[in-house]
Amino acid sequence: MSSPAPAPVAIVGAGPCGLAAAVALHAVGIPHIVFEKATVASSIENYPTNLVFFSTPEKLVIGGVPFECAAERPTRREGMDYYRAVAATHRLDVRERECVIRVERADDEFVLHTRAERRDAGAGAPSGPVIVTQARAVVIATGYFDYPNMLGVPGEDLPHVSHRFVEGESAVGHEAVVVGGGNSAVECAMELARCGASVTLVHYETGFVSHLIKPWILPEFERQVASGEIRLRWSTRVTAISPTAVSLLTDDATATLPARVVYLMTGYTPRPGLLGELGVKFDPTTGIPEHDPATMETPARGVFVAGVLTSGIKANGVFIENGRGHGALIAAALAARGAGGG
Ligand SMILES: Cc1cc2nc3c(=O)[nH]c(=O)nc-3n(C[C@H](O)[C@H](O)[C@H](O)COP(=O)(O)OP(=O)(O)OC[C@H]3O[C@@H](n4cnc5c(N)ncnc54)[C@H](O)[C@@H]3O)c2cc1C
Question: What is the C-alpha radius of gyration for the chain, rounded to an integer number of angstroms?
Answer without folding.
Answer: 22
